[in-house]
Specification:
With 126 residues, the protein is mostly beta strands. The protein is built from one helix and eleven strands; from the N terminus they run E-E-E-E-E-E-H-E-E-E-E-E. Helices cover 3% and strands 50% of the residues.
């Protein structure tokens, strides 16, 4: 049984930092692309960043790339999202997701991710 468990969310002031973690179990972690999505109130779930088994990464926008860093530790079966210079518009539930490497060509598409965590709330106060 595959499980993805996020942690590290919380309340932070504008300009602050958080590091989200997602611990995976029940899968061969090094065979999977790992991803972070987020969903703000009243909005659809959107792609944030993804990272392949070899560390190759992609971000939804250059603006996010400058503030967010996705990384992974295959030995610990954990993916991270370091978030700096947080803004109120970053407020959302952040979800970890996983998909197999066969979907590498579509790794920003929500529909290819078949394993999801329960989400962790990030709230940025102004």
């Amino acid at each position: 049984q595959v499980q993805l468990v996020e942690s590290g969310g919380g309340l932070v002031q504008t300009g602050g930092s958080l590091r989200l973690s997602c611990a995976a179990s029940g899968l061969t972690f090094s065979d999977y692309i790992m991803c972070w999505f987020r969903q703000a109130p009243g909005k659809e779930r959107e792609f944030v960043a993804a990272i392949k088994w070899d560390g190759d990464s992609i971000y939804s926008a250059d603006s996010l790339k400058g503030r967010l860093t996705i990384s992974r530790d295959n030995a610990k079966k954990t993916v991270y999202l370091q978030m700096n210079s947080l803004k109120p518009e970053d407020t959302a539930v952040y979800y970890c997701a996983a998909t197999s490497r066969q979907y590498a060509s579509r790794w920003t598409a929500k529909l290819v991710y078949n394993y999801w965590g329960q989400g962790t709330q990030v709230t940025v106060s102004s």
